[in-house]
Amino acid sequence: MRSFFAALALTVGAGQGIAGCGDAPDPCEIGSGSYHVALPESDPKGTIVFLHGWGGSGSGTIANRTWVPAALDDGYAVIAPNGLPREGRNGGRWSFHPDWPQARDEIAFLTAVRDDAAGRFDLDADRMVLGGFSIGGSMTHYLACNAPDTFFAYIPIGGAFWRPHPTECAGDVRLLHTHGWRDTTVPLEGRVVRGEDVNDPQALIQGDIFYSMRLWREQNGCVHLRGDAFETEDAFWSRSWERCDANTALQLSLFPGGHVIPKDWAPLMLQWLETL
């Protein structure tokens, strides 16, 4: 049934959503939540676990035609966990900020998703990468910071740390962060989401993407503040830090658009994963 669900992900339009747990019509259920999965036709060479944004869903992620078909074609399984329900509203959310009340232990949940999927579908847990969009990207950064060994690498888009920024992390990482230059929902500098201004002690404030990258440079033991390699010829302006601790990787890729998963993200992300 792998080929059926791979084909289904190719043909269902973004926003329509599909459910699935391998050859079953419903999502995979575990004690603390659920997840959806699409499998390539051949044996997977790796797995991408991807977290939806605010108000999104795992079924919507699996149906995304911007990048999921390319990942399946390249031999990756795709897993899309479901966030927590939003009270009185459709879609899900993530309890991502460690300083806020925790509605669910998300690190434990995503670790359980990893282990359940590895056993259920014969996937290599050591070759799973975690990514996410918007607050799914923020959740990705926080898990990478607090439990870096949970996944092999991290590929967040359009979301990172919030204020107050963390000052240290538990270990180094392999991380590709992608962000829109014109993003006004999660600007590169962050924004005040709730409250008077940045000086309001009760304000809810997004973090600074450049601070996030600085923290990862320091955590990875990178020699330079500046990048070591640059690429500006394709759809992205990218810089990577290469003179860092062994078995780390760090890249920032910017694109001209706003708060979206860009249409060219799949080849960028898949090529970066191959370099690891």
Characterization of the model:
By secondary structure, the protein is an alpha/beta fold. The protein has a single domain (2-275), classed as Alpha/Beta hydrolase fold, catalytic domain (Rossmann fold, 3-Layer(aba) Sandwich), CATH 3.40.50.1820. The protein is 26% helix and 23% strand. It has 7 helices and 14 strands. It has helices at residues 2-11, 58-62, 68-73, 106-121, 135-146, 209-219, 265-275; strands at residues 28-30, 33-38, 46-51, 76-81, 84-85, 92-93, 128-133, 153-157, 174-180, 192-194, 204-205, 229-231, 237-241, 249-255. It has a 10-stranded mixed β-sheet, sandwiched between helices. Strands 5-6 form a two-stranded antiparallel sheet. Strand 5 and strand 6 form a beta hairpin. Mean pLDDT is 91; it is low at 1-17.
Structure, briefly:
By secondary structure, the chain is α/β, with parallel strands linked by helices. It has helices at 2-11, 58-62, 68-73, 106-121, 135-146, 209-219, 265-275; strands at residues 28-30, 33-38, 46-51, 76-81, 84-85, 92-93, 128-133, 153-157, 174-180, 192-194, 204-205, 229-231, 237-241, 249-255.
CATH domain class name: Alpha Beta
Which homologous superfamily in CATH is the superfamily?
Alpha/Beta hydrolase fold, catalytic domain
Q: What is the total number of structural domains?
A: 1
Strand adjacency order, main sheet: 1-2-4-3-7-8-9-14-13-12
Distance between the termini: 30 Å
What's the helix count? Answer: 7
Looking at CATH, which topology would you report?
A: Rossmann fold
CATH architecture: 3-Layer(aba) Sandwich
